[in-house]
Design goal:
The protein has 406 residues and is of the alpha+beta class. The protein contains twelve helices and 19 strands. The strands form four sheets. Strands 13-12-9-10-11-14-18-16 form an eight-stranded antiparallel sheet, with helices on both faces. A four-stranded parallel sheet has the order 3-2-1-4, sandwiched between helices. Strands 5-8-6-7 form a four-stranded antiparallel sheet, sandwiched between helices. α1 links the parallel β1 and β2. α3 runs antiparallel to α4 and α4 packs across α5. The longest helix has 18 residues.
């Protein structure tokens, strides 16, 4: 029996790897979080390994190396941002095919990423590594406000701050991000994302989407949505072409999903924000499945394992997704049942009775929906209706002082 090692930072309901691989002659060996491990518990003994503090626990790497050798794995698969580099390092160490470390860093480190793209066919903001407070002060003195400061290797806008004036800068410097950051000039415009799949070194699926609200809306505990562009939209071809140009400039692996973010500015320029060598977060994969009949994670796994694609000829039907972050306080009631028209899938990641501190990052939602309609405009209207319905029916209560003290 052949084996693939999988870094599985997702619940089994989203990534049923053994079901996807059934009949292929390849079996998964899974490393996952303590939270998600019960979903994979039906796999044979010794093939599921769970870890607390999964993102930073280096026993994950130690165990992965042991298992890869023990099972003589033929491929390593990792779909989460936290696993991109550790998976690439393992492939490189063992001489396995797929993304290696230099490629992973180019898709993970926002400064390395832009270094590859600087002077190329797609515009980027002016940027630099913010390795000290002096660098931030000098950058704002040279380029003015506003600027954006964000961690070089996080996802979902975690830790990103828009610095609009010196008071904002002082507030940031008083409590800065503890890791390495980058600073860049602020770009005004509509943000889009382009998601797709590379297999055999060729882009075999690609489609652009428009963000409804924006990636920082979670900071105000507000929702963010994603809406596919119609192939007839004037921005469609421009965004697909820009994403292809970015992939051509980067050391793109022969098999990878990708999630690129770009702006179209008021003066009609396409400007690069960032790209990841993975599927999009939140409900994006579910939206793609409903809109195109394509499971990007499954197809990517097949490509990594050298299995035949089941992609076929995707047929588009309008569908969008809605990610709603938690509020602040204790969740008393989650509305389920009686959802407005168009809801095709719902995902709930929390628990009634649990305390929340508001939104953390754009891809981490309390409730996610996939919503369809006959047109993109109808999908967007339904998306806003569902968000309003949810807001009217969810119930929160403030955290009691004794709960805060615990």
């Amino acid at each position: 029996m052949r084996h693939v090692l999988i870094f599985a930072k997702t619940p089994y309901t989203k990534t049923p790897y053994d079901r996807w691989l059934a009949g292929s002659g390849i079996e998964p060996v899974v490393l996952t979080t303590t939270e998600f491990a019960p979903g994979y518990a039906h796999l044979p003994p010794g093939r599921v390994h769970a870890f607390d503090d999964y993102d930073t626990n280096q026993l994950v790497e130690k165990t992965a190396l042991r298992l890869a050798r023990e099972y003589a794995v033929e491929a390593v698969f990792a779909r989460a941002e936290a696993d991109v580099v550790r998976a690439a390092q393992l492939r490189e160490l063992l001489g396995l095919p797929g993304q290696h470390t230099a490629s992973a860093l180019a898709f993970r480190d926002k400064v390395v990423m832009k270094d590859h793209l600087a002077g190329g066919p797609v515009d980027t903001p002016v940027y630099r590594r913010a390795d000290s407070a002096y660098a931030l002060v000098e950058f704002t003195a040279e380029h003015g406000y506003p600027v954006v400061v964000k961690p070089v290797s996080e996802s979902g806008s975690l830790g990103a701050r828009v610095i609009r004036d010196e008071a904002d800068l002082d507030a940031y410097l008083a409590r800065p991000w503890r890791g390495t950051s980058q600073v860049e000039t602020f770009v005004e415009g509509q943000m889009y994302h382009v998601d797709g799949l590379v297999a055999g070194g060729e882009v075999v699926f690609v489609h652009p989407f428009r963000y409804v609200n924006d990636c920082l809306s979670f900071r105000d505990d507000d929702w963010v949505g994603c809406l596919p562009l119609s192939p007839g939209d004037p921005a469609y071809d421009r965004l697909v072409k820009a994403a292809g140009a970015v992939l051509a400039e980067l050391p793109t692996p022969p098999q990878t999903a990708f999630h690129a973010e770009l702006w179209i500015t008021p003066d009609d320029r396409v400007v690069f924000c960032e790209i990841a060598s993975r599927t999009g977060g939140g409900m994006i994969s579910a939206m793609v499945r409903h809109a195109f009949g394509v499971d990007l994670d499954k197809e990517w796994l097949y490509a990594e394992c050298g299995l035949p694609s089941t992609l076929g000829d995707p047929v588009y039907r309008p569908a969008g997704c809605l990610n709603i972050p938690p509020g602040k306080g204790v969740l008393e009631h989650l509305p389920t049942g009686g959802e407005p028209d168009g809801v095709r899938e719902m995902s709930f990641t929390g628990a009634v009775g649990r305390e929340y501190q508001g939104g953390v990052k754009s891809g981490l939602y309390l409730v996610g929906y996939v919503i369809d309609g006959d047109t993109e405009d109808e999908v967007e209207r339904r998306m806003r209706t569902v968000a309003d319905w949810y807001s009217a029916h969810v119930r929160w209560r403030p955290t009691a002082p004794e709960e805060n003290a615990r």
